[in-house]
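hey can u check if this looks right to u? its 90 residues, i copy pasted from the old doc so theres a chance i mangled smth
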Amino acid sequence: MRNSFRLGQVCATQGAIALSDNNPTLLRSLLRRHASGDWGELCDNDKRANDDAVLKAGRILSSYTLNGENIWIITEHDRSVTTILLPKEY
């Protein structure tokens, strides 16, 4: 487990909510993974960048597969907000 960090206000887009079949438990489980430093399906360079971002207050991006589609979780550099969204909503 990596260093934890503040999530700030947590938001989910309509697309992310629809992909989860309106099941907040699925989104919460991904959020827990993100907050614990499990960056999901990222390349090693992006995972290392996230590890550095935790220590140096940079933006953190995790990528997971949910119901066969890609879903992202992004925590802003200032830790004010974390957004769960689909890549096409970015």
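The chain has three helices and four strands.
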